[in-house]
Design brief:
The protein is an alpha/beta fold. Helix content is 33%, strand content 18%. The strands form 4 sheets. Strands 2-3-4-5-6-7-8-9 form an 8-stranded parallel β-sheet. Helix 3 packs parallel to helix 4.
Length: 351
């Protein structure tokens, strides 16, 4: 049996939802990660420091006593965001960045922006405040094919934005294409990207090849295998511009298995680091997992690396088919299937 000791990792992109849903999502995240950047696309969205503080307090009420889990909060950028919101966020000890959603790009993105240039004054304030911009990078024009939306976003919005604000720290969230991986690799130290485990595990044929598999439907959508391979190469490259962000996004079973419209999102928080270990091991790059999962993220955000460790064991286990989710059920990714690595120790001293 192989054992792998890692500096406790962090999740730099996660959806926890709110209310009764937090009991499960916070428990799963806190068991594996020391910190997590929490997405603000609630309904209504988290748009200012007061909203973020209320949401953070709600999250902390669900952290098990045995875990020291820190939620890092974000603000949802809308056309109504003003510079004063950014100044306050930059002064807050628990705000890690601001999230940009193109309107209509994903779950609860209706309050997002239709023209990114309208937020240029806000980006100027963020650059001054040294507050990172976290971007869901897709165009949402109906005429653009869903599989091409990320690549088009790079050319039409992201490249001009970075040129206009060269000192703004930008995270290209949950990248899904060869073009995105190459773009980030070509940038300087102010630009980084998160990579999800489901985009490392699956391609669009897995989702559509033998009937639609709703548990694999996410946005940005899974792409061709050449793109999955490019993401795998980036994640295992040792390039500090790429780090872990699960984009774990829970929905009740009734929303995922819905003939009238499947909710977008894959829930992976129940086995987040275990699945990444499986991916890195299969690629022969298990020795590079710690840097990707535990080092590069805090380094980019200017935070200390976690002082404690976790231990993974190569012992197969079967993920539960369903999990409690408020008054409903949640279907996790790989539910009922075997996962090769198991979380053996959830906390140990750095000595």
């Amino acid at each position: 049996m192989r054992r792998l000791t890692l500096t406790r990792p962090d999740d730099w992109h996660i959806h926890l939802r709110d209310g009764d849903y937090l009991s499960q999502t916070v428990k799963d995240a806190a068991a594996r990660f020391g910190r997590a950047i929490v997405m603000p696309n609630l309904s209504p969205p988290v748009v200012n420091v007061q909203d973020a503080e209320r949401y953070r307090t709600e999250i902390l009420q669900h952290v098990p006593r045995s875990f020291a889990f820190e939620p890092l909060m974000t603000l949802y950028l809308t056309p109504q965001t003003v510079a004063a919101d950014i100044v306050a966020a930059g002064q807050s000890p628990f705000i890690a960045g601001c999230k940009l959603y193109p309107a209509g790009a994903t779950t609860n993105s209706e309050a997002g922006v239709s023209a990114i240039t309208q937020l240029y004054p806000i980006f100027e304030a963020m650059q001054t405040a040294n507050l990172p911009l976290l971007i869901h990078g897709e165009v949402t024009t109906h005429s653009v094919d869903i599989f091409d939306r990320e690549a088009r976003f790079i050319d039409e919005s992201l490249a001009p934005l970075i040129q206009q604000f060269p000192e703004l720290k930008v995270v290209f969230e949950h990248i899904t294409t060869q073009e995105a991986a190459q773009f980030v690799a070509d940038q300087g130290p102010e630009v980084a990207a998160t990579i999800t485990v489901h985009h490392l595990l699956y391609n669009r044929t897995d989702m559509l090849g033998s009937g639609m598999k709703p548990l694999l439907f996410c946005l940005p959508i899974l792409k061709r295998d050449q793109h999955r391979q490019a993401l795998l190469a980036a994640a295992t490259s040792g390039n500090p511009a790429f780090f872990l962000g699960t984009d774990s996004a829970p929905h009740p079973r009734s929303s995922k298995e819905n003939a009238c419209g499947c909710a977008a999102g894959c829930y992976t928080a129940h086995a987040g680091i275990e699945l990444y270990a499986e991916v890195f091991d299969a690629a022969g790059k298990l020795d590079r997992l710690e840097a990707f999962a535990s080092h590069f993220g805090p380094d980019f955000y200017g935070l200390p690396r976690n002082p404690d460790k976790i231990v993974l064991e190569e012992i197969p286990w079967t993920a539960p088919k369903t999990l409690p989710f408020g008054n409903e059920l949640l279907m996790p990714l790989r539910g009922g299937e075997t996962i090769a690595w198991r979380l053996a120790s959830q906390s140990m001293s750095s000595s």
